[in-house]
Amino acid sequence: MRGLVPPLPASLPLPLPNDSLKALYRQQRCLLYLLAPQQPAFAAIASRFHMLQLPKRLRFMVAYYFCFYFLHICNDNIHYAKIMRDMEVEEPSSSTIKLQVPTMADFPISPVAQSSQSITSPYKFVSSFTNFQLHSIAPTRSKLFLAGTTIPRSRRAKKYLSVKNVASDQSHELKDAISHQEANALEDFVPDSSSIALSIKYHAEFTPSFSPEKFKLPKAYVATAESIRDSLIINWNATYEYHEKMNVKQAYYLSMEFLQGRALLNAIGNLELTGAYAEALKKLGYSLEDVAKQEPDAALGNGGLGRLASCFLDSLATLNYPAWGYGLRYRYGLFKQLITKDGQEEVAENWLEMGNPWEIVRNDVSYSVKFYGQVNTNTDGTKEWVGGEEVTAVAYDVPIPGYRTKTTVNLRLWSTKLSPRDFDLHAFNVGDHAKAYAAMKSAEKICYVLYPGDESQEGKTLRLKQQYTLCSASLQDIIARFERRSDGGEEKEEGPVNWEEFPEKVVVQMNDTHPTLCIPELIRILVDVKGLTWKQAWNVTRRTVAYTNHTVLPEALEKWSLDLVQELLPRHVEIIKQIDEELIHIIIEKYGAADVDLLHEKLKEMRILDNIELPGSVLDLLMNSKEQVVSSALTIESSEEEVKKTNQQEEDGEAEEIEQGENELKLFIPDPTQPKLVRMANLCVAGGFSVNGVAEIHSEIVQNEVFNGFYKLWPEKFQNKTNGVTPRRWIRFCNSDLSSIITKWIGTEDWVLDTEKLMELRKFADNEDLQREWRESKRRNKVKVAAFLKEKTGYTVSPDAMFDVQVKRIHEYKRQLLNILGIVYRYKKMKEMMEISSPEEVRSKFVPRVCIFGGKAFATYVQAKRIVKFITDVGSTINRDPDIGDLLKVVFVPDYNVSVAEVLVPGSELSQHISTAGMEASGTSNMKFAMNGCILIGTLDGANVEIRQEVGEDNFFLFGAQAHEIAGLRQERAEGKFVPDPRFEEAKAYVRSGVFGTYNYDELMGSLEGNEGYGRADYFLVGKDFPSYIECQEQVDLAYRDQKRWTKMSILNTAGSFKFSSDRTIHQYARDIWQIEPLHLP
């Protein structure tokens, strides 16, 4: 070491740490930035110091000293001057503070990576998210300390340090002379634009994902993201380590979807660094907006299910709750939607094509996931799942920062691959490449696509593999963390784990039925791997797992073929059968066995296994019950003849009872013509300790209709948790213009964390100044929307028209068909009026509108794709009609996602949430629109009910049948009693006239006709609600003409949206279901 480092000079000018230098230190590899080009050996040594578990204030000074010491000893005066200039510090003056330092030889670190020199210390650095440990130098052995006074906190400090070699002075004892004020100055430091620009330049050069020649926008984005990630990692690691240390109960949120959206603006917004990054990028020649646009949306979700999960993670971090998210890392997402003359076309998402700077692969965190095989019973009665196919699930971690807090929670995504030992090298070398690749592709394709088409058996198998991979890998990881924390996190001989404590430290929330296999998988691990008894494992599981129901649609209440589950997961079928058997006994205990018809009805409703024979124990119970009824002792015997007569009657009665019993038991015989199914929702309810709906009306339907039998059995399990959205992304960041106005009038920005403060806007709703500012803000946002639509679709729209928006997954129950038929009717009436009236009269009748649609139809959902085609055909016709001009435009935005929503929502004025009543669980887009001052038109469905209550009935456009009427209306239709409104028939006839092109819409229009049959009879009641919808739209026009009234309605929608923050929802989950407490980092 002494040979590598020149002697230290008597005095080395060293600038006092200013904010820029402090920021440089905060970057993970700041030393490499300074040193790697000229002195890679020194850089390697210095980077070792960066990992040491020294006190932060001392670690900073070590790193700081080495930076400039190395530059000096390398005689790199040019680079030294450049750094001084970049840091905006002046040349050293005579004013100095002495820093006493050792020689390099006094630090027990070898410069050679391969050195076997050991460094012993009682302290250990524990790498986050892994079990990796690195021994470090003990602080008590260091000879480095400051001799001086308080360091000023000014950003432009002009004092300097003088470095002296005092290694030979043995009289100095180790001490830490930096005051608490100085330490806090370092730890609480906020980076400025100069240090951020320096960090971005470092990442562009030394963490390269692009060629070095040019600094173009894509490279600028990745470098910016990596510099932000550096800041996140500091808080991320601190959060993890503190949670490990405190060992509190933690929530784990399992979801097949996490619809994150872009991360860059959200991250710097939560870190409160938006202005600094904007200024830094401006120095580098780019705008923050242009750089942010380079980020693709993470293709990890599709609709409200995934967006809700992402809002929850944001709130969990912001509110400092100990929690993680678990999902899958889909390489190609759902699909990228293209709109062509044929309607929707699907191509693979390319969001990972240029890499993902937000994720960190944890190659040391992986778990084996098994499929197929067989179950063996050992001599001791234990079960062993052997053989089959195995894949490896590897963890990819994404930091989720909270707002105005250090807490940064983790989203762990699993990606699947084949272990190298399972690659068939022999087949490859002999030329049978297809065979060699088969197992590898089978493993990798599990995480290729979100919701692969399940029309084929292969598609069904792949979906089930996805669900099990999520459950198995996540639970193995959760259990490993629990065991490590149970041992105190130390590397010591493994002791017994108290599994009764598992539910006191872990709660697993299943986001819909996709993670249902958590229940049998947790039991399998506890029984087969950890050695618990069935009773113990079942008790632990029922206290650990909770279930959120998101829909009442039959196809969403998943039912899997028993044969498929048996083939793919044979051990889990055994466990599910045992759970089903226990559930049957509980049902019999509740309802008894005397009334066989009632019992049959309850079992048909509540069993987990559908169309499966009853377990032997249940059949024995039923037969014994019948025998007890038949055998009754004779209490009086009057004569031998009477006894004989009584015996004969008894025998005849017994035979009759037996025959009747046999007939009754036939009710439970499976129907061989029907499939055998595993009902996942019933398994969720039976195996979990909590079941919640996501809106008040939805929870009522769950309790009174969908799971009524379970509700009567376990009423304490059921509760409501109305959804919410994060106000950070969905108003504070995406609508900064309106946010500033809200802050101005409320007098504080605290509403971002306490949305109840939005209610204060109500007292200003009639204020003319607020209304003027509100309208001006809305118009600026509409101008942005108009520019966006021009860029994405080529259509030019007027920002002076009303912007009417329906953006959500394309589905018949969401009734985009009702919306577009209403537009067709409006267009027809415009055309008819133009033939007899002046343009002014037409304009006085109809408010100009831009009708905006967006959303994806699943690739195999034919009817939904017909609706997309229909919307685009109508738009193509209307938008090119010169008579109509700006009076009506219809635009379908392709590839709708979070980033598109962040543009459309702030500029929307009317938002349509018009699902058939009782079919939408909650909705979350309705909350986003209301929060941004957009007025809703909708039915009393999902969260619409509660939104209308909070914003006021006069500020919500209501139409349509109510949930309790739907069943009767369908029955009326089936009986042929429904009489369609003439306006509805007029709209359908206009479509069939060919005015919108040559496409044959008979199938689409035919679904609205007839009284019965699959795909017929207007199941979603478009025709029934059409006249009410048209009349409600007339009320919308009337209100919009009175801009003062409309603006007041808009303000009151924002004020009333306070309830629909995901912060409120998460507080309720934490208190009522998870029973966890906030954990603030020190």
From TrEMBL:
Keyword Membrane included in the entry's annotation: no
Give the protein's cofactors: pyridoxal 5'-phosphate
Task: Cite the EC number.
Answer: 2.4.1.1
Q: Which Gene3D superfamilies match?
A: Glycogen Phosphorylase B
Checking CDD domains in the record gives: GT35_Glycogen_Phosphorylase
Ordered alphabetically, the record's keywords are:
Allosteric enzyme, Carbohydrate metabolism, Chloroplast, Glycosyltransferase, Plastid, Pyridoxal phosphate, Transferase, Transit peptide
Catalysed reaction equations from the record? [(1->4)-alpha-D-glucosyl](n) + phosphate = [(1->4)-alpha-D-glucosyl](n-1) + alpha-D-glucose 1-phosphate
Compartmental location: Plastid, Chloroplast
The protein's GO terms of the molecular function aspect are: glycogen phosphorylase activity; pyridoxal phosphate binding
Q: Which InterPro entries match?
A: Glyco_trans_35, Pyridoxal_P_attach_site
Q: Which Pfam families match?
A: Phosphorylase
What biological process terms from GO does the record include?
glycogen catabolic process
Similarity comment text for this entry: Belongs to the glycogen phosphorylase family.
Function, as annotated, reads: Allosteric enzyme that catalyzes the rate-limiting step in glycogen catabolism, the phosphorolytic cleavage of glycogen to produce glucose-1-phosphate, and plays a central role in maintaining cellular and organismal glucose homeostasis.
Name of protein: Alpha-1,4 glucan phosphorylase
